[in-house]
Amino acid sequence: MRADDPLRSLMPWLSEEEGEGTRSAEPDELVQALEELAAAEGADVTMQRFLKQTGVSEHAVYKHFPSWSELRIEAGLDPRRRADVIHADDDLLAEAVRVIEACGGFPTIREFNERSRFPYHTLYMRFGNRAEILRRCEEYRAQP
User: What is the pTM of this model?
Assistant: First the structure.
């Protein structure tokens, strides 16, 4: 994250040298960052969005909180709810194909989450493992 990034105020304790997704924050820092992000972007902020905007690692969250819902509760938000938006299979597959092509092959979960409009978990829950996702993407690409 650049020093001039407007969201830098959410995590002033993250040095540029540490890089995104590598900082293990203290519980109160996580709560404060989530409170501020929710105030800026709305209470339905997802864990993926939180990780991307703060540069904190998923490990840091689970080191201090048993679940994402627990962190949300500590920050004064409702526990995590299922998304109200249900993506059509074709939309998910089109996005997966786009990301796979942009990466030059099947990306890591982290790479996928950084480049995609939705988390890898959504693909996995809908289509199954990596091999099945690839099979479904090939079928999608073969459509006229």
Answer: 0.51
